[in-house]
Every structure is written in C-alpha cells, then in structure tokens.
Design brief:
Layout lengths: L20 H9 L3 H29 L3 H18 L7 E2 L5 H32 L11 H18 L1 H5 L10 H10 L6 H20 L5 H19 L8 H4 L1 E4 L2 E4 L26 H33 L5 H14 L9 E2 L1 H9 L5 H22 L4 H16 L1 H10 L2 H16 L2 H23 L1 E5 L14 E7 L7 H6 L10 E8 L5 H16 L3 E5 L3 H9 L9 E4 L2 H20 L7
Parallel strand pairs: 6-7, 7-8, 8-9
Antiparallel strand pairs: 1-4, 2-3, 5-6
Helix pairs in contact: 2-3, 2-4, 2-13, 2-14, 2-15, 3-12, 3-14, 4-11, 4-12, 5-15, 5-16, 5-17, 5-18, 8-9, 8-15, 11-12, 11-13, 16-17, 17-18
Length: 597
C-alpha cells in the first residue's frame, strides 16, 4: 500500500495574539484624528441609543436600572479593547432576559451576578481552547427558532408595564407569568396604555421620516415631557416612572431612580441574595449556579459571534472569534464586581455604530463613556422616563429581534426537516427555556442531517460499460461504486448492497473515489466485507482511495496481499489487475502455466 501523504497544516497563532486583536490591527494600519472624529460621532449616537435600552433590559430582568447601565459601561470598555471585532458594541441584550430573570428569582442579585462571573470564566476557557469556530456548526433553524422564541417571550412580558398591571405574584416561567398577568387584568391603566402605545407608534413611524436620528432619542424624551405636562394639567393622571418605581439607599438617604454614581467595586456574593441575605460562596453554590452560567455563556457566545459576523458584512472586515470570546469572558468576569449583569455583543447597537461611521473599537469605548457621563450628569432627568415607554421600547426591540419575515420564509421554502427543527426550537424556548431548545434542536438537526447523509450514500453495481474504463471487464469480475461518506449512519445500508456474490466470481473492484470520509463504523463494515470475500477466495481490489479513508485503513492494519486484497490508485489500473487475475485463474484451472506478472 502506498504511503499516504497529508497536506501541511500550519499551527494556530500563539495565545498571546488573542487579546486586543482588533485594536492592534487598527493601530498597525494607522489611526488618525479623522478616525477619532468618526468614532466620536458614532459613539455618541450609540450611547444615546444604549442608555434607555440598558435600563429597560435591566428592569425586564428584575433588577434596578442602574445595573444595566453599569453593564453597558464596564463591558462597553473592556470587551472592545480586548476583542477581535472592530465594531462590536457590547452590553446587556434582550436575549438574556429569559435566562437571567429566573436566576434572580431563585438566587437574588448576588446569585445573578455570580452566575455572570462564572459565565465569564467559561467564555475565557472557550476562547483559550479556540472554540470560536464551533459556533458555525449551529444550524440556522436552531438560531432562528430560539431567537424568535426569546423575542416572543420578551414582547409578551412587556404587557405588564405597558398596561400598568399590578401582579400579586411573579412566576419565573413564561406561561405562568402570562396567567398571572391575565389574573391581574382588572388593574390595567388606560393612562399607562396610552403612553406606551404612543411611544410604540412613534418608534415605528419615526424611521419612515428619517433614519439619520435614532428613533429612541426622540421618542423617549418626548414621552417623558408628555408625562410631566399631563401630571401638571390632569389631576387624576398617574403613570409609573423609573423614579417612582426604583429607590436606592445611599449613606442612609433614599435616592429615587438612578443614583448619580459611577460603577463602584463590590463583591457579588456580599450583595442581597434570596430573602435579602448575602450568599455563602462555596462549592455547593457554584454547583447550583453552573447550569445557569453555562446557559449565559452559550447564549453570549452565539449572540456575540453572530453580531460580529453581521458587523463583518457591513464593515468589510473579518473578526477573530477566539479573541472575541476571550474578551467577552473577561468582560463578564469583571462586570459583576461593578454591579453589572451579563453582557454580550448587541447586533442593533453594532449596526448603528457602523451606520454612523464607526472606524474602530474606540467608538465602542466612547459609547460607554457617554453613558457614564449621562449617569453622573443627568440621573434626575433619566428618572423621569415612564415605565410604559421603556416597555414599548423593548416590544419594538423584540419585534426586530424576531425577524418574522425570515422566520416565515424558512417555513415556506425549507425542507420539512428544517422547518421541524425551527418550530421545535421556537416552541421549546417559549414553553421551557433556551438551553432545552438549543439542546433538542441540535440533537434533532444532527439526526436529520445524518439521515440525509445516509440517503446520499449508496453502493451501485456498475456494468462493464463504465465511462472511465477502456478495457472490458469479464463476467467473473464485478465493479461496485460507492458514493458518499461511509459513516455510522450509512455504513450498514451501503454494505448490505453487496448482498450475496456469485460463487463463480473471481474478483470484485470497490471504487471508493467518491468516498471523502470514513469513520470506524464504516471501517468495521468494510472489514466485514473483505473478510467474507477472503473466505470465498475472491480477490478484492480497492481503487481511488481518498486521503482520509486511506489513512484510516493504514492505521487499522488493512494491508495488501497477492491473493486476497489489492489497492490501486485508479480505476483503470484496478480493471487491468482484475483482468489479469481472471486470466491467471483460468490458466491455472486449465493446467496452463500462468503468464509472468
């Protein structure tokens, strides 16, 4: 058997190249004053968009709005400086709501922040192990299904603040929460609904007038001004605002709304846990939080890398996925020690930054610094934002996140198996959670893919008129052509096609030129065929081996011998060898001396 040669593969770059890959690339190319001016404008615009959205996302999780702002500030500085994408804007995102809210209900703020820190450690490990490319193996129906499911949950949960409902209980699961909101339907407020629907209508209509100004920049201040005017002119008017809903005690003083403080260092497990008591950090607690942390890490990695791909398409760049995972892990590890919740790449904010001229990660850092400045300078004004308007903003975000047209397009044009995966992931996300949906979706997609591959693998009995052959095969020779990979899902089906060979057969040619890969199940099945043909005294000629199957056969000790197994590079060579074998055996049977080989 000829020695198999493999193409040279260069080793991956050292780990030292991962941190700050994008920033170092920008600086190598040259970064000037004009680039900074473009980044400054983009950073200011994205900061304006991210400011109310970060608060709304934190409120949707169940924590005070400043925790969302602290996330946008800390992650918005750490991740872009260390990451592998030039334009990625990191911060809290809507997708995390359905994961973080149950953690808060069970473990309190301390457990929520600690789970985020554990997720950061997991993401760092994923980056160091260079698992960034594995995200590419998640099928589109899986990501579309759970994304649409998350958007559905987020949108419906905003009905509480949009209607001003006062719930007697706040269950963790979606269906139970919807039932609780239905029970509280009598507490709905027409004023809250009017402010919320007005904000939502503005968010939908304003982009049709102009896209040069982000709609939330106009819609939310307008809603706050409308609330202030109505409070002055209408005696019975009342809607909940950030200032009326949230209060923080600082140095013994009650502060309404957002405290005018930067993110301050704090030990996560010393913050309030279940029942308001601090948590005791031990192995048991880490074991309890690990599944939630794994969910945060998985979703963060998927969303961040998908966002980086979108940014590449818009900006004409190429990101480093491993560097991005490492940076995201560091950001999530640091955020909880400054009061921040889980963060990831935000597709909408990233796209906004690119549209407004972002040139480098500096724009992402400037957006975080703008939010910090707004917290320090405008905290009392921010506290005037109505809760119904923030709910409307999240409903708007959820609608855009759902990609309804893309969802329906897949259902319309995709094979039934892909549509089944899409609907399964969507339904499981809504009824259970994202982890169950992704796990079930990946397993289902894998089985359907294996079935599809098994259907493409076949063994065909070819006559003596094969277009490659220039010699006519005698009747004592059979040619089988194997098409497709010989793996565990297809090997048994393929090998069964050999059936029972005639007793008078002298040689079989197995043409494996169309077999790109073979696993151990395919190897065992092939060895079984070779063993059976050996027992029947039939010469087997394997032709056209590709590198991977050839290496596997060599490693398994499958060797040539003169009477039972030969391996040829081409089909023509195999055919000539088979003809000589038949002639040799015919001469031997007739008593004539065999021709020299």
């Amino acid at each position: 058997m000829a020695r198999t040669r493999y193409p040279h593969s260069s080793a991956p770059p050292p780990l030292s190249t991962l941190p700050a890959a994008a920033l170092r690339a920008v600086l190598r190319e040259g970064y000037g004053a004009s680039d900074f001016r473009s980044d400054l404008l983009a950073g200011l615009v994205v900061g304006v968009v991210a400011l109310p959205l970060s608060m709304a996302l934190a409120i949707a999780v169940g924590v005070a709005p400043q925790h969302g702002l602290y996330t946008a500030i800390v992650a918005g500085i750490v991740v872009p400086l260390l990451g592998g994408s030039r334009f990625q804007v990191s911060g809290p995102t809507a997708a995390f709501i359905v994961i973080l809210a149950p953690i808060l209900g069970r473990f309190g703020l301390a457990g929520l922040l600690l789970a985020g820190a554990l997720a950061g450690a997991i993401l760092i490990a994923m980056g160091l192990l260079r698992l960034g490319r594995l995200i590419e193996f998640i099928p589109n129906p899986v990501t579309t299904g759970f994304t649409a499911g998350i958007a559905t949950v987020i949108g419906f949960l905003q009905l509480k603040d949009l209607l001003g409902l006062r719930l007697e209980r706040s269950p963790d699961h979606f269906l139970e929460r919807m039932h609780a909101m239905f029970d509280a339907r009598a507490t709905a407020s027409l004023w809250e609904l009017s402010i919320g629907l007005g904000t939502l209508a503005f968010l939908v209509a304003f982009p049709r007038i102009t896209r040069r100004i982000p709609a939330p920049l106009v819609a939310l201040p307008a809603a706050a001004i409308a609330v202030l005017l109505l409070q002055q002119g209408v005696p019975d008017f009342h809607v909940a605002t950030i200032g009326s809903r949230f209060h923080t005690v600082i140095d013994g003083m009650d502060v309404a709304g957002i405290p005018r403080l930067p993110p301050l260092p704090a030990v996560p497990w010393h913050l309030p846990g279940p029942g308001g008591q601090p948590l005791v950090l031990n192995v048991h607690l880490v074991r309890q939080l690990f599944p939630a942390a794994l969910s945060i890490a998985l979703l963060g990695a998927i969303e961040s890398l998908l966002s980086a791909v979108v940014a590449d398409g818009m900006g004409g760049t190429r990101h480093d996925p491993d560097s991005e995972l490492l940076a995201l892990g560091v950001g999530n590890l640091v955020c909880p020690f400054f009061g921040g919740i889980a963060a990831t790449g935000a597709i909408a904010r990233t796209a906004t930054a690119i549209r407004f001229g972002s040139r480098s990660p500096i724009a992402c850092v400037l957006h975080a610094l703008f939010i910090l400045a707004a917290v320090l300078a405008m905290a009392p004004l921010i506290s005037c934002l109505p809760m119904a308007s923030l709910a409307a903003l999240l409903m708007f975000v959820a609608w855009n996140m759902s990609e309804g047209k893309h969802f329906l397009h897949i259902l319309k044009v995709a094979p039934k198996s892909d549509a089944a995966v899409l609907l399964t992931c969507y339904g499981l996300t809504v009824v259970f959670d994202m982890v169950v949906a992704v796990t079930a979706g990946m397993v289902l997609a894998a089985f359907l893919f294996m079935r599809r591959m098994a259907e493409t693998t076949s063994v065909q009995l070819v006559g003596d008129e094969h277009p490659v052959l220039r010699v006519k095969l005698p009747k004592q020779v059979m040619l089988y052509e194997v098409n497709g990979p010989l793996f565990f899902g297809a090997a048994e089906k393929a090998i069964q096609a050999f059936g029972r060979v005639p007793i008078a057969l002298k040689a079989i040619i197995l043409w494996l030129g169309a077999v790109p890969a073979m696993d151990v199940t395919g190897l065992v099945a092939l060895e079984s065929v070779l063993r059976r043909l050996r027992q029947q005294g039939i010469l087997t000629i394997i032709a056209g081996l590709q590198p991977q199957p050839a290496a596997l056969l060599q490693k398994a000790g499958v060797k040539e011998d003169a009477t039972h197994l030969r391996i040829c590079a081409t089909l023509e060579e195999a055919a000539e060898l088979a003809v000589r074998q038949v002639e040799r055996m015919s001469r031997r049977h007739a008593g004539a001396p065999a021709r020299p080989r």
